[in-house]
Fold:
Amino acid sequence: MDRLTAAMVRLSLCWLLAGFVTGGAMLVDRVTPGDWRTWMAPSHGHMLFVGWFLQFVVGIAFLLLPRKRTPQRPLGYNERLAMLGAGALNVGLMLRTFSEPFERVGKVNAVTMTALFVSAVFQIQAALIFVKQLWPRASVRQVRIRPQNAGPGEAAERSSRTNGDQVGDWGSANETGTHSLPDLARMAQGQKPAWSRQTEDLSANLISCNPDQEVGSHVNKVDVLLVEIEGEGSVEIDGHWHEIQPGLVLIIPKRTKRATRCDGNHFAYLTCHRRRSGLMPAPLMANRDGGATT
Structure:
């Protein structure tokens, strides 16, 4: 649980307790000194609605609503500003709870009027902060609808991807099973991706390259896990080429420039990353002496 959510939930529970104690005093108003019903009627409602209910809901909303995390905002929101809003909400509510009973009994003075004014300013400020922080996170998510049965056009596209070979098991999101990646790579003979599997969130691709093929230089949009399956090949990471061996695992961070090339008769490797558009092997545009280019 985030620190903000924990703080707001705990404060809401404190207001819940204060509201029940105040409500209990109002119930026994006739047998206790003072006129608790007159003094605390509006304040009691604000304790329970704003202090407990509203604060609890907003605190949980910060935790549960979708977040867009960035290096500048690892939590997906401005924690300092949100904490300021929580502080303003609670300070404003305490000022109101203190000053409003004086107004109810007709003992209004400059101190109580100032306290009520500051209370209103603080609570309005808190509301503006919460709306500013949560509004962008309450967006509609676009859901892709995948057809259950592929039509003639999609079937032809899948057939062209595998070039007529029965090695391209492109599969569907709900398909399960095991696959021998070395066998699939050898059967592909460098003809486009040997195998691919995509789910709603994940993309895995087995790339099989011949000596005249490579995946050109590009910048990762997501983190990529790369595993060499067989053959001889090299991976370029930010301008530096690295020879890799079968079984070697590389984790290539996003926003990193990378490329791959075949250094022998055959080169096959598996990539796995968050789903995005895939890459196809491209012909080398320079020989090995002149270096691989894109």
User: Anything to note?
Assistant: The chain is about 40% helix and 20% strand. Confidence is low (pLDDT under 50) at residues 146-175, 278-294. The longest strand covers residues 257-274. The chain has two domains: 3-137, 179-283.
